[in-house]
Write a structure and sequence with these properties.
11 helices; 46% helix; alpha+beta; globular; six-stranded antiparallel sheet; Jelly Rolls; Arc Repressor Mutant, subunit A; four-stranded antiparallel sheet
Length: 280
C-alpha cells in the first residue's frame, strides 16, 4: 500500500471510488486534491473521513473548521458543508459515505439493543487509534475479497466509532422545525427536477416573493433552490451511472447543457468525475 500512497499523494489530482454492501451500503472515496473545491452540499448518510496529507478546511453549522493529518472528519446526514485545501498544496483523505443504517446497526449490535441511533457532535476529532482503525477498514474494503473479513471489520470499527465519538441520543435543539413552505418547495423541485424550472414558477407555487423564497429556503436548508436542484440531479446521476447508463445519455436525461457541464458539476459535488465513478 505504501507505493500506492506515494502515487496518490503526488501533485496530480487523483480519485478512486468503490462500494461495499457487506454490512449495509458504504461508498468509499480515496482522493488526492490540489486545487479542487467541493461545492456546498449534503449527504443522505454520514461522511466519515481521515485526512492523510495536508489540511482540509470546511464550513459547517455556521463555523469554519480545519482538519490535518490523522484527524477524523465526522459529518451527520443532511448537514450542509463544503471543503477545500488550506493552501496550494491541497490535501488527501480517505472517506466513507455511510448509510445511517450501517452506523445505527453497529451501535445497536455493540450495545445489545440499548442504543439504536447516533450522531456526531464534533466535526473534527483527534483520535489516532480510531483514525488508524478507519484507515485499516478503508484499505480492507478496497483490497480484500473476503466477505467475512470485511463484515467483521465494519462492525468492529463503526461500533468503536459510535462508542468513542457518537452521541447516543439526538438532541432536540439540534433539529429546527422546517416551515411547511420549505418542505413544499423541496417536494416541488424533487418532482420536477427534469424540467427547466424557474425561480418565478417556484415562488408562484410557494405564494412568496422570489427574494423572500431564496432567503427562507437557504435559512432552513443551507442551500439555494438551484443548489438543491443540482444536488438532486447529481444524486440521480450516480444512480444512473451505477446502472450502466452512458455519461452522455445521463447528462442529456438530467438536463445538463453538455457533457463538460455535467462533468464539472458532478466533480464539484462528489469529488470525482462521472467516468471514474462509473468505472471504479
Amino acid at each position: 500500500m505504501q507505493a500506492n500512497n506515494k502515487k496518490l499523494y503526488s501533485q496530480k489530482e487523483e480519485t478512486k471510488v468503490w462500494h461495499s454492501n457487506e454490512f449495509g451500503h458504504l461508498e468509499c472515496l480515496k482522493a488526492n486534491y490540489v486545487t479542487h473545491s467541493f461545492a456546498p452540499h449534503t449527504h443522505e448518510g454520514f461522511a466519515i473521513g481521515v485526512v492523510e496529507r495536508g489540511i482540509e478546511v470546511f464550513n459547517l453549522r455556521g463555523n469554519r473548521y480545519q482538519a490535518g493529518k490523522d484527524q477524523i472528519i465526522l459529518i451527520n446526514p443532511g448537514e450542509v458543508h463544503d471543503g477545500n485545501g488550506l493552501n496550494n498544496e491541497g490535501w488527501a483523505f480517505s472517506i466513507f459515505y455511510a448509510d445511517p443504517k450501517v452506523l445505527n446497526r453497529a451501535l445497536a449490535e455493540s450495545s445489545e439493543g440499548r442504543q439504536k441511533e447516533t450522531f456526531f457532535k464534533e466535526p473534527v476529532v483527534n483520535d489516532p487509534l480510531l483514525a488508524g482503525k478507519l484507515l485499516q477498514l478503508h484499505r480492507t474494503l478496497e483490497n480484500s475479497n473476503s466477505f467475512l473479513e470485511k463484515e467483521i471489520l465494519i462492525l468492529e470499527t463503526f461500533a468503536q466509532l459510535t462508542s468513542r465519538q457518537g452521541e447516543k441520543t439526538i438532541e432536540p435543539k439540534e433539529v429546527l422545525p422546517e416551515p411547511k413552505v420549505v418542505s413544499r418547495v423541496k417536494s416541488y423541485i424533487e418532482e420536477n427536477y427534469l424540467d427547466n424550472i424557474t425561480l418565478a414558477e417556484i415562488s408562484a407555487f410557494a405564494y412568496m416573493s422570489q427574494f423572500h423564497l431564496i432567503r427562507v429556503f437557504k435559512k432552513h436548508t443551507g442551500l439555494s433552490p438551484y443548489a438543491y436542484l443540482e444536488q438532486i440531479r447529481i444524486n440521480r446521476a450516480k444512480e444512473l451511472l451505477l446502472k450502466g447508463e452512458s455519461i452522455i445519455q445521463t447528462a442529456y436525461e438530467l438536463g445538463f447543457t453538455d457533457q463538460s457541464h455535467f462533468t464539472k458539476t458532478f466533480k464539484r459535488f462528489t469529488g470525482t468525475t462521472p467516468g471514474l465513478y462509473q468505472n471504479q
